[in-house]
Prior knowledge:
mainly alpha, 10 helices
Amino acid sequence: MDALNSIATAFNSNLLMNGILMPAFLCLVMYVVYRKRDELTRHAIQNTAATLVVAFMNFGIALLFYNDINRFLQRLYDSVGIPTLNEAFWDGWPLLLVALVGIVVKDFADYWNHRLMHTDWGWPTHAAHHSDTHVNAFTTYRVHFFEAIVMSTSYIVLLTWLQMPKAIPIVVMFGAVHNMYVHMNLPYTHGPFKYVLASPAFHRWHHADVEAAYGKNLANIIPLWDRLFGTWYYPGLCEDEMGAKKTGVEDKNPFIIFAYPILEWSRMVRTKLGAQRHAAQSPQTDP
């Protein structure tokens, strides 16, 4: 188990491996093994290039602010004095079992985070991820910095009390590898296990630019949450267009993608203020 933990730690700390080489290898597998020739089209390459630029922009901002923000949030959490489990609580538990508990609890938190980000005011933080019109393993890393802050905040608030540091590298590695897998254009549904482990066929609907699928299939790993909370959607294999262009989100310009949250929130505030002014100026009629 120590070897597995070491592998997971090395994987998570190697940005080149898990951010570029691994998804590039998976795209090559799609092209060669599954004969998905669209993996190397101009459209796919442009989308992947945009994803990488967004990822590097996130990385640059993270170098400046992310650690400070995390430290601030952790200090804030500590000042509240929420009771935490003693780390020794997990002593004697098999590491894989502790990791499984971590995966389930983290995924439950992720489901509600995801659901929050599919609300009107939460959407701008998540739109970058849905902007990809060629969804593949690289799409995993098309995530806006604001979304990373939301997720990090929730982990500190919801998961810190568990105190399972030895399992965290395994939980993170499993989540990253599985996330790349579900973004691959594969017809796998996982059959009788479809509610236990998210499949590419299940997750593809989440990225479909189809109104009926908006805000559906929100679970990252365990689709049972969608089944329990009314967000399950699976009418069959998805052959529809990917992305969010129908809602006005750009797919190939990384700078517009990165600016989208500020631009969209500004528009929403202007619209709300305009509606309030209009209501205030409208003549009141006596009953």
